[in-house]
Amino acid sequence: MQSSTPAPRATGRPRSAAADAAILAATREALVELGWSKLTLSDVATRAGVAKTTLYRRWSGKNELVVDAVAELFDELELPDRGTLGADIEGVVLQFAAILARPEAKSGLMAVVAESTRDEALRERIRASIVDRQKRLVLEGRSRAQARGELPPETDESESSRTVDLIFDVVAGAVVHRCLVSAEPADEEWVRSFTTVLVAGLAAAGNDRVS
Amino acid sequence: MQSSTPAPRATGRPRSAAADAAILAATREALVELGWSKLTLSDVATRAGVAKTTLYRRWSGKNELVVDAVAELFDELELPDRGTLGADIEGVVLQFAAILARPEAKSGLMAVVAESTRDEALRERIRASIVDRQKRLVLEGRSRAQARGELPPETDESESSRTVDLIFDVVAGAVVHRCLVSAEPADEEWVRSFTTVLVAGLAAAGNDRVS
Amino acid sequence: MQSSTPAPRATGRPRSAAADAAILAATREALVELGWSKLTLSDVATRAGVAKTTLYRRWSGKNELVVDAVAELFDELELPDRGTLGADIEGVVLQFAAILARPEAKSGLMAVVAESTRDEALRERIRASIVDRQKRLVLEGRSRAQARGELPPETDESESSRTVDLIFDVVAGAVVHRCLVSAEPADEEWVRSFTTVLVAGLAAAGNDRVS
Amino acid sequence: MQSSTPAPRATGRPRSAAADAAILAATREALVELGWSKLTLSDVATRAGVAKTTLYRRWSGKNELVVDAVAELFDELELPDRGTLGADIEGVVLQFAAILARPEAKSGLMAVVAESTRDEALRERIRASIVDRQKRLVLEGRSRAQARGELPPETDESESSRTVDLIFDVVAGAVVHRCLVSAEPADEEWVRSFTTVLVAGLAAAGNDRVS
DNA sequence: ATATAACCGAGACGGTACGTCAGGTCTTTGA
DNA sequence: TCAAAGACCTGACGTACCGTCTCGGTTATAT
């Protein structure tokens, strides 16, 4: 996850593979109990049964560690085929909201995003590990909708890319804002209202574009 | 701003009014230069030409201070009448994006939101100082649109409130996500695309509701 | 002991006087239990009931702290008047040996001397706090011996100073070597033998000089 | 030097003999550059082109290693026959002072002596490798002086042994104190003064004893 | 005018976490 | 079996910031 083994090193004791998993799990556990700002790397090391130096050998700091720990949470997202675009969106938004309801995601995600405003490398890491990784859901949803005839096929590639980005910003932004800032549950009712607006908007905007 | 002076205190030296402003300004300055995580209260006190104790006498900690410092930034938002609902939204969204482009807002806002996931009182403070305070823009925009006949009038009060919240989550969430997570500029092109989708969605959803 | 209050500081909370004494006592205690190399400043701070920062605010490091802690041990040396030069020397050498027999002196003194071989400032501190401070004993002993007619009066000042230094090197060096390197007790028998040689040597060398 | 290989080991790869010399030389080099307290075994291993494990296989720790590295320095001492007891002593004292002027001796010797105050085994190692090894010089000097008639022959064996120890403590102690504590050069003038006192003291004390 | 009371600056205080470093041990590949 | 490499755990390092406290001193109102 964190580094693609730049030098394969033929000699010396190899790094423990188990340590990585233990550290990430311990990080999530600490996020749940303490939140991001009270999470300390010493504590994570202790929970993982690992020395602090081992932790620093693999991650350069708290932010990078938390990104990796949180990123794993979002990999369980998937887009089940529910028959219509609206239903598909509702399904994935509910999953997304469920993940954001977990304290390790809430506290960790926003904190690293905040940090990333002053750290270009961190922003890239977040984008690579979390954001771009989940855009697959938008792409897949659109393909299905196009196959069903709910949305018109793509004509312009850069236009297509911009639309994916826009949808992602709207969906992810709205859900995050609902869950973290408004601090209201993104329950079925809210998700249905939101999806209604979104699908209608997409359809109208799509028709505008092609017409 | 911070607390409504529970006991008015008739005697003793009154608190310096100038100090409050100096501290908030120093806080924003420090946010620009250092970002949230490297901002220290000692440093803010020094910048403001004030003792640390003076600072702690007025704010209980870093989070509360930053909320107040950031909240002032959003008070300059206004909704100029541009003739149509879409143009009004575009105008306010551009203003919002301009504020979010400033480093003191970026770094500070997300950080306190992250902290608020584990601090109920802080969340309330954010809501009172920032979120609810700006919902006026949504309310005013809707009134104008209804007066122009772009949106149907309200019938159900709780339904109305839910819609305001939804719109706020969508607008604020999308812009924040665009600016901070995607880290792309919310320029006129993006804002136009976003507004198109939003207005179409609202119109369609509104028609659904009244029909 | 450590600093002669360069700036009397009119403002701010004054430093606790009790802390200094507690820290030096704790340092000696730790020297007894752990020895120099296993003594840690964290441990000293804990023993003294003081924060580590308080300790670092007053001493720049382990070496300086130990010098001050050990220096106090030697202040109890005195030169009782026993009637003859030889008896006076025996008396003070026995006292010196008694101090060197204490573990806090043994371990601490040699360690800081070793460190001082690479630290000019530390060497000066040792000289000022310990060595020069105890040369008073040599001076006083010589005065008495001269008053009794056991030694001839001084004629050349720089010669006089060199002689004091030589005697100090011989006395301190021999006792330290006996106690720490040879690790044999500097008991009455050894002290008598040593004093015999020294007094005879001084008398003969003195006679050489004046004759 | 360090241990007499208790089991000669008939099988497996034999230990590199060159490594021992390289390690001791690297240790002295590191003592010169860094001093005892900043010398690290990792660094010594790197300098010697050897793995840390190889080093630990041969020495149990830093102290033992430094004792062996320093001990070799003193083996070059010898007692040239200059015709009189005083001249012989002057010669060897000047050699001793020259060795102590070298940084690897200064820093290393005192440090291990300091450590030895809390480590019986280390004290024995120092005594065996350094102290007792150089007492040969005192013995040889006395023999010559007796042959020349400068000192009376021995009568009592234990008395003889005590005298050798006393002389060694006085000579070694004074020179060490002069060089390391007083930090003044043990130049020819100082050595002459010291020798004058010592020889006169020995002669007078010896006459006392036999008379 | 003179208490009284809360304010102010400065800075020391007891803590906690930081990120680094050295000490020794263990685990790998290779000679 | 030893050697080299390097990851491992432990624990101390010296620094920085936290939030509290103790000073000497300054403004206000309330007598």
TrEMBL record, chains A, B, C, D:
InterPro entries: Homeodomain-like_sf (IPR009057), HTH-type_TetR-like_transc_reg (IPR050109), HTH_TetR (IPR001647), Tet_transcr_reg_TetR-rel_C_sf (IPR036271), TetR_C (IPR011075)
Protein name: TetR/AcrR family transcriptional regulator
DNA-binding region: 40-59
Lineage top rank: taxon: Bacteria
Xref: PANTHER family: HTH-TYPE TRANSCRIPTIONAL REGULATOR RUTR (PTHR30055), TRANSCRIPTIONAL REGULATORY PROTEIN (PROBABLY TETR-FAMILY)-RELATED (PTHR30055:SF230)
Segments passing through the bilayer: none
Keywords: DNA-binding, Transcription, Transcription regulation
Pfam families: TetR_C_11, TetR_N
Protein's UniProt keywords contain Transcription: yes
Residue stretches making up the HTH tetR-type domain: 17-77
